[in-house]
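U., I forgot to send this yesterday:
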Amino acid sequence: MAPPRTNTRRRSVQPPGTPWSRALALLGLGVFGVGLTVALVLIGLFAWYGRGLPDVHGLRTAWRPPQTTRVLDSRGALLAELFIERRTVVPLERLPRHLVTALLAAEDARFYEHTGLAWTGMLRALVVNLRHGTVAQGASTITQQVVKNVLLSPERTLARKVREVLLARAIERELHKNDILYLYVNHIAFGHGRNGVEEAARFYFGHGVERLTLAESALLAGIPKSPVHYSPVNDMDAALRRRHWILGQMVSNGFVTAAEAEAADREPVRLAARDDDHDDLAPEVIELVRRTLAQVAGDDALRFGRYTVTTTIDRDLQRAARAAVASGLSDLDRRHGYRGPLLTPGTRRPNASGNVLRGVSPPRDGVLNPGQIYAGVVAAIETQPPALVVRVGTSTGKIAWSRVARYANNTTIATFAPVGAAVRVSPDQRITPDSPGTFRLELGPQAAFVAIDPWTREVRAMVGAFESTPGMFNRATRAVRQPGSAFKPVLYSYALHSRRYTLASTVDPNPGCFGTGRRPWCPAESHAVEGVIEPGMRLREALAVSRNMVAARVMEALGPEPVIEHARALGITSPMPSDLSLALGSGGVTPIELVNAYATWAARGQYQDWYVIREIRGPDGRALTLPARAPARVAITPEEAWLVTSAMTSVIDRGTARSARSLGRPAAGKTGTTDRSRDAWFVGYTPDLVAGVWVGFDDRQPLGYGEEGARSAVPIWTSFMRDYVRARRPPAIEFARPEGVVALRIDPATGLLPGLAPADPLQAPVSSIEEYFLAGTEPRETAPVDAAVLAPVDASAWVPSEVIDAGATAVENPVAAPVVVEEPPVVVAPTPMADDAAVAPTD
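Result:
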């Protein structure tokens, strides 16, 4: 019997659970896998981008950002600021509490609670960034902002963000919260080039952080988010809205009460007055400060700053000097046509045309060097921004329209400089055909001005050019120019010192020649009248009206060598020619050199070196040791100094500088003009201030017809001194006469004692004047009656309407009229001069 048939199919085994549970399990595995993958990716990213991260260990103490060096005037007013980044680091303890809490409310209210990262904000930013496909939004804590600004670049990339997160955590582990906040408040940008809260407080409110009110603190705290948009200087309404929001955040976080916030919100904003003129007020002084700072503190002092330099400059007087120079040169420009539209070559213009079209021809290789003046032509005009394109040979350069203001005379750029117009220009830097640069327009002359306190030798004002451009050539300390008749007081000072002359000594003023042979020296004498022989002239009057022949004959009698030695005693260090032409100022000097020599007479014969820097304090507040100054020394006696001063008061009272009498107080000084009016000088002083002016072209072009010290330089001096008197109100005192000076009546014609009175009562009495002498040098002889002057002498009759102190001129024929010998032009330029050491002209 067959076995029974059975069903061989096996029943399927059902797994436990429902289909939903299986789906969830699979989802869980997927999420885990994705999470693991993300984690591995993140670990990989952090490992990859974490390589070579900056070391944050000791960041608080190692952090040394560039800071601002402040240059102050003699009264503590700000003269200039030197900086790579405008910043002044302040300790956290100096910050008022409401400033700190305002910054926290604005940027990171939970700063003291988190560990460097705001995770919720980062996730929110991540969603936004994923949606935009780029880094469009950040979620930075203060710690992250410190990392971004101090350690990393501000670029928005994934790599930087990863490094930012890693460094933020590292900083939180290494530094205390207050150290992180210290870095933040001193580094963050507040707009207008100001970095850190101290510079921001000074810029916006004119005072330091300690004096900030709650309202001011809230306003400042709102700026870093967008310095351009939230600056109250740029947009006051936006800044106030931002302040209102921050005050609300401060209330929400319990930093201030609602009442305090409301009061602050009502407080009007009082921004500091802008005082930016100090930036270009004294670039000449700032260059000396830079040089000295590097010398005493090293080059790092200029990089990292935080020094305080107190100078001898008086800011008000510096401003007055700059204005006087600008006004004087502008007047000269108007007199000689240096202002107004440029004309194309071939078009004649009165007076100025020769100077405009004259300049050094460019070299064949087209290389143009700074300090040289070249003849060029306007090749094109640019409008955005306005500029002239000038071609000099095969090289080109631009002149910014803003640098043409002196000459533009309210014209437009197209009207002022048509294409093809001839110009004189000097390069700001080396220019080649392959490397264009920038030019300076050289139409009118330049000037230098120095004012010194004679008793301390502190420089009160210094101007080296019409422009106030950083790095410009400082003619006050570096331009070596012939002083002309401004040197005559040095000669007469030695004449008195030698006891061979007094101010009453008479010397032949009539034209003559010195030396023999084919080229005798015949000084030009503008006062000479053909066919008229003048009597002897007293030294006082000869100096007052600047008679050249008197000076030359005194030099011949004394010899040049002792005069040079005397000039050295007065502080003139530049090389001087050992010949008779020195009497008329043929040896070059710098303006500050000559002014300081005059200061020796004003200081009763006491010589000292001039100086500009009074004190330098380092970042730690300690004073640095400055280069030693030579001790003061006696150059001449007080009596000799007073007599020279007395003689120079006659220059102002009735001589070539009569226009300076308008100052209305005792003053002494001397004009100077060189051959063909290439240089115009005036150095003058009151009992408490010495000031000197030089005017001329850098390449020694003539200033123009009728220009001399009295016309070109004296008005600048007088304008400055008026401002000085108004600003400082010095007492109007006389120059105190020493006891060793004797006053005596003399005969004005002979310089001797007055003759006897006439026996005839109807005859006019003999005239006499008062003169001063060193005790023991008074005249002993009596003037003969037939030589006595029977009427008062009017010395001003000897002064022509335009007095030119002609310089040394060699002539072939001593009988013929003086023939001017053309000399090669000398360009006094900064390039070949390493420092302020004087360099004698080669002519």
